[in-house]
Amino acid sequence: MQGVYEYIDAHLEESLEDLMHLCRQPSVSAQGIGIEETAELVAEMLQECNIKVQILPGVGGGYPVVYGELAGDSPMTLLFYNHYDVQPPEPLEEWSSPPFEPTISNGILRCRGVADNKGNIVARLSAIRAYQAVKGHLPISIKFCIEGEEEIGSPHLAAFVEQNRLLLKADACVWEGGGVNWQGQPVITFGCKGLLYVELVAREAARDIHSSTATVVPNPAWRLIWALSSLKDKDEKILIDGFYDAVRPPTQSEVEAVRAMPSEDRELKESLGLKSFLLGLSGFEFGLRHLFDPTCNICGITSGYGGEGSKTVLPCVAGAKIDFRLVPDQRPEDVLAKLREHLDRNGFEDIEIASLSGENPARTPLDSPFGKVVCQTAREVYELDPVVVPTMAATGPMSCFTDTLGIPTVCMGVEYPDDRAHAPDENIRITDFVKGTKHVAGILDRFGQRV
Amino acid sequence: MQGVYEYIDAHLEESLEDLMHLCRQPSVSAQGIGIEETAELVAEMLQECNIKVQILPGVGGGYPVVYGELAGDSPMTLLFYNHYDVQPPEPLEEWSSPPFEPTISNGILRCRGVADNKGNIVARLSAIRAYQAVKGHLPISIKFCIEGEEEIGSPHLAAFVEQNRLLLKADACVWEGGGVNWQGQPVITFGCKGLLYVELVAREAARDIHSSTATVVPNPAWRLIWALSSLKDKDEKILIDGFYDAVRPPTQSEVEAVRAMPSEDRELKESLGLKSFLLGLSGFEFGLRHLFDPTCNICGITSGYGGEGSKTVLPCVAGAKIDFRLVPDQRPEDVLAKLREHLDRNGFEDIEIASLSGENPARTPLDSPFGKVVCQTAREVYELDPVVVPTMAATGPMSCFTDTLGIPTVCMGVEYPDDRAHAPDENIRITDFVKGTKHVAGILDRFGQRV
Fold first, then answer.
1. Among the three residues B341, B359, B377, which one is the final residue of a domain in this structure?
2. Does the complex come out with an ipTM higher than 0.90?
């Protein structure tokens, strides 16, 4: 592989030109800006790497998906999942330079979308090009599935994957993002949590009314509070009957992976100004709970008067937004049904539940051969032990790949902890871009060898 | 009194001219509009009735108070409490005519402030003028205390009355407002509830954070919900230790007064679109609870994301605004202390309490001689039995008079149920204005005779 790695170093300027070209093209899904143009630009970039491309219409009115494939020596296929959309650039005044004008200084490339995840798209393409240029062939077949709605929650991806199972058929998937930790170790992540997002609404009178009637007029804010307080107790135990039934305990190797992870809870506690974490957790116990426990979290509550000073009002409506982070093998529709049953059984038939979104959890076994390939090649390229993370605490549409397509799916990429993804001055370090590119080349090479 | 009543009828045009003149002068305390001008105009109107006037500076930076006195045949003194300020006229587009241009049609005078309570100021002055014109003297002495901050919660009245006890010394007080019910019966009210308005605030992390950390990062919305749910149970029992200790049960005559009140709960239930009131109450039981029970009401809750759709956030702060309506002999400062103790005892030392306002409850005995005078003269003028109401469910600064000055205080006036006080198209019926004027004249006459 030395020749390929040298090629990547020697052609860095061209790769960065490609990346800056892609970054200059705004593609803000939340604002509907530059979607078609970016899909076409990405398609052209794939074609330049000899990849056969189709721009497929999104399912159900979704933004288009760029699909690409390139047959290699073996029918064994690696699928890259990426997205060409980016977060809105606002607040503009907090950027050091215009968000869609890439700048390079001190080894850092700054632009909206460069970390999340145009840098990964270009690193993957650069690796493929380098491999072909040096070796004259590709040992495995590759596919790309690059959607345009990740930053708005991938609302049409599950249906797209469902409808295109055959087209997307592959033996493994490289996830859209990943990177190194503060110590420069590559972080390889094997899953993500699921999600159920609901809004609970209590309604009583037809209109807000003077609070002197609180003697006799029911107050939906009280109803909501009593209902919410029935969901979780002060020891953080979620009280919905059967909520934990489907929770699959972590495997021994997942537990050991958490024990081996560098603990970062002290830094987080300090940065958040907290005296302690929930239940006084730290270190290994903190890691176990953070990765393997489901949550029931209040994202927002709204009722009545929230302005300055006092207003003596009895509100007619009260609402709470709640997200449940789910772990294997919980399912959002099952938790939703159990939530309804719980409320009914506790005398809260009047509380309405609107289900706003759901996502299944996803997990790839740590001992999957593909996972081992990703970790071994990471060790070689980064010359450091990779950090194996059994799952993110956050959520993504990963189950489309692990469950619908049934393939191992692993995260790796060019990011680093201070990349400011989603924030002003989003950036990557060029050294990470180079290593991430070489890591992809290593995976291409080794994944073929394992058969 | 026939001559006085006839004089009032004969000089109605002049009284209405006075009222329209006063209404044309905006006096919006919340917006600081027209305060000085209105105080001077009111002072002039008092002087025209031979009343000696001083415009006293408000205490502690408050708006000025118009003080007036007129010695009569007896040192026995009746104090009129009124306010010259009005509610903001907004929303302007919902008025049928400009809010500060009085219009008369179909026996109705429409203008901001005409019901609340410039109509009462002018009715009281018209009665005094009529009595003097016809009888050539006043049987009792009178005083006026007309403040300019009632519509913003009378923040400086208590201190003003405290500092001017001697000046305001009187034997009884006529409250600023009152009127008739839908059947045209005069409603005579003998008290009001007190108030404690607080804001509870829970804080955790230094900033909002991604909700995937809900496994380990404390959520202030949960803390607030658990704290709130400890304050009141689903049977509407307030759980703060000692909360009910100071509650004085209603007297037998107060209970009988409620039994005699026409019950209006069915209309209210219909207008609010409610299936039932709290605890299924109606009729007499409804009335008892509504007038004699204290409340703990959530006026508003705010935390995290309240916009459209979903945002997966863990908020760093949560707040709830709560009003307690208090009954004799509860005191806001005592309830505040008990609330703090309750939270501490239940493990909520972290919940902050900001006290936004407090007001003592006030109650005048139904069998007070002054109350009897007001009821008897009402029966004579309205030719209908008055409705005796032991207390409003709402709050006002009445304890300044009942407790600080130690005098019986009773509500009567020119209002009616559809007067739209505080709302667009505020209005009074001219027939009510005439009867309210005659009722004041009757009180002036009879209050002197009772010695």
1. B359
2. yes
